[in-house]
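User: I'm new to structure prediction. If I give you an amino acid sequence, what do you actually give back? Let's try with this one:
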Amino acid sequence: MTPPCPVLRALWIAELHFRCEGAQRPLAAVEVAAAGNLFKVRQFARRALQNSTAAAASPRSGQIDAMILLLCGAAAVAVYAVCCFTVLRLPKCQSRARLDGKTVVVTGSNTGIGKTTALDLAKRGARVILACRDQKRAEAAVSDIRRESGSSEVVYMHLDLASLQSVRSFAETFLKTEPRLDILINNAGLVVEGTTKDGMGMIFGVNHLGHFLLTLLLLDRLKESGPSRVVNVASKAYEVGKIDFDCLSTHKKLAEGKSSLSLFFRYSHSKLCNVLFTHELAKRLQGTNVTCYSLHPGPIKTDISRHSNLLWKMILFPILTLFFVDPVSGAQTTIHCALQEGIEPHSGRYFEKCAVKEVKAHGRDDAVAKKLWELSERLCSLA
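Assistant: Good question. You get back a string of structure tokens that encode the predicted 3D arrangement of the chain. For your 383 residues, that looks like this:
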């Protein structure tokens, strides 16, 4: 029982507070009681009991929280390790083909999987032409590849895929100086706002239209050098892509919008263009000794978004760091499509992890592929 007298009751509460909390200010209860405010005494006692209960429970609660966090962290690490050795693990190209006396063009080959691809082909004895826009970076890449491969047959030729005139100039120079072309690898790609020098959406112009024109301008040389191949580096992102012909005809871009999400979808649309272009190209190459393939290189750590805005980079950074693999792994499917013996019957098909993969229905739509081809011809002034 508690003492009935307010003053005694206050003293009792003070003693209780003293025992529970180490007597930080036990006489405060007496001071309150002395003021004759019993309501405040009750408030004081209630706070004292609550504080003592929380103080007694907090060490155990903290230990439980720490253990839960530790278990969650361990589970996350375990899941990540499993992903690295299963889902994220990419196979290596098994071809041991030599390319002595053969010529290869790789666009966007001053960095990332393009540079890694060029290095591998140079090691196999090919004459490798780095078709790039940035001269300084390209010349640095040429020096690196020559040093690592031991080959002097690595050269730079200027190519700006954002300018159809530059594409034509590259093709003209190439056809005058290079007697053969065995493999054309359309590797370059970007994710950035803006328009090309011809007024096209930048993503559409670089990722699809520039490569479309380049391929057609070099096609006769590919046929003369056959058997030869065209390899178009696409992406699994094509699965969410679509072709808006009204937008292309009206605005010469794949979609409207300024947001980062819109940027991603435009990139996806351009990768669908790569897949459809390969599908239609294979049909038009039937009866020749040229074959073509599109592919998904895998989740690769590259600087494809180096020209993107800060928000886009912030979104991509943690994903790239944790779940994307190195360019050497990412180049393997490209190298497989360029070299692997016996895949000629799969011309026009889509590859992933060094194997043929069934493409989604909208990626093999004959009518859409033909319409895209015809529109691309008009935009390039070929029709």
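You can read the tokens as a compact description of the fold. Here is one thing that stands out. The two ends are 102 Å apart (CA to CA).
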